[in-house]
Amino acid sequence: MVSRRQIKQAIEILSNACEEDFIGLKNEIQDSINVARGLIKSTESKITALTKDQGKSQLFGFTSAYVRKLKHKHPDSVKNFVKNWCVKQTDWRYPWCYLCANDLKYVEHAVRSHLVYVCTNIFDDKKIKNYVLKSLSKTAESNPNMFRAKPLEFTGHIRDRYVPHNQIGTLISLDFVPYLSIEQIKNVIKSISDVLRPGGQALIHFSDGDGEEEWRSVVEHKITYVNQNIIENLADDVGLATNFYNIDNFYSFVVLTKSGVKTSIKDHLTRIEQI
């Protein structure tokens, strides 16, 4: 299956070739451009139907209960990418937040942060603590008492009473956004802007529906539709800068950055007791 991204690239290449005015090929190239544009247009009605309904994720059956049961096996390339990003970003001076829809994997990479909010509908503080102790050696650096379980709202909102706004230095979300509607994703990105402190960053996994494999999954109702342009526009609306990454031609990530310089008045660790 040819992806929308590939068709768009073909249109751009053919258009540039047309401008070179190769007389013998110009008409043939123009015909090819028209065919490619027709293919793009033929998918617009499908995309409109997929993105029009604000509750389409529920329409597809993508409820919180459905997503929590999914089992995702990430390739080593994704695991290494996420791990390397987290290790570079986390800092004990800044709280960390993890939007955990169905699995605690990667939460152990937050050990360098002093306080970690895990937004989840599956795990409580005790289960998170046991996971951390099992995943990491029991050292002062991996104190499980620094993890706090908070509700994960499928509306995409992150409430200030659960995660303090303008305080989070690093946020991560995997296997969550691909099952949300455009309206829910809009709420997620707005909430990320709310919780991040100036200079804070968020690593968000999404499925770019303009990619070949992602589009196939959209058509088969395995994920909901979104693309890089939509994510970029939603982020721009709330003042977040974007950097996009694609791993193995299937796993798409965006790093959202809040403007400003990340600073803290902390000069030493505060003792955290179990609650």
Provide a brief overview of the structure.
This protein is of the alpha/beta class and 275 residues long. The protein has helices spanning 4-19, 23-52, 56-59, 64-68, 76-89, 125-135, 182-195, 212-219, 228-237, and strands spanning 96-100, 116-119, 147-150, 168-174, 196-206, 240-247, 251-258. The protein has 2 domains: 4-52; 64-258, Rossmann fold (3-Layer(aba) Sandwich).
How would you sum up this structure, described in words?
A seven-stranded mixed beta sheet has the order 3-2-1-4-5-7-6, with helices on both faces. It is an alpha/beta fold. The N and C termini lie far apart (53 Å). Helix 1 runs antiparallel to helix 2 (23-52) and helix 7 (182-195) packs across helix 9. Strand 4, helix 7 (182-195) and strand 5 (196-206) form a beta-alpha-beta unit. The longest helix has 30 residues, at 23-52. Helices cover 41% and strands 17% of the residues. The mean pLDDT is 80. The chain has two domains: 4-52; 64-258, Vaccinia Virus protein VP39 (Rossmann fold). The protein is elongated, with a radius of gyration of 21 Å. The protein has helices at residues 4-19, 23-52, 56-59, 64-68, 76-89, 125-135, 182-195, 212-219, 228-237, and strands spanning 96-100, 116-119, 147-150, 168-174, 196-206, 240-247, 251-258.
Structural class, by secondary structure, is: alpha/beta
Q: How many strands, which pairing sense, and closed or not: the largest β-sheet?
A: 7 strands, mixed
Q: Please report the first level of CATH classification, the CATH class of the largest domain.
A: Alpha Beta
What would you say the CATH architecture of the largest domain is? 3-Layer(aba) Sandwich
Q: Please, what is the oligomeric state?
A: single chain
Lateral arrangement of strands in the main beta sheet: 3-2-1-4-5-7-6
User: What is the helix/strand order?
Assistant: HHHHHEEHEEHEHHEE
Query: What would the average pLDDT be, to the nearest integer?
Result: 80
Named CATH topology of the largest domain: Rossmann fold
Radius of gyration computed on alpha carbons: 21 Å
Provide the CATH superfamily of the largest domain: Vaccinia Virus protein VP39
Distinct helical segment count = 9
Number of individual domains:
2
* Secondary structure tally: strands: 7
Low-pLDDT segments, ≥5 res = none
- Global morphology: elongated
Helicity level: 40-55%
Ends distance:
53 Å
Beta-strand level of the residues, as a percent range? Answer: 15-25%
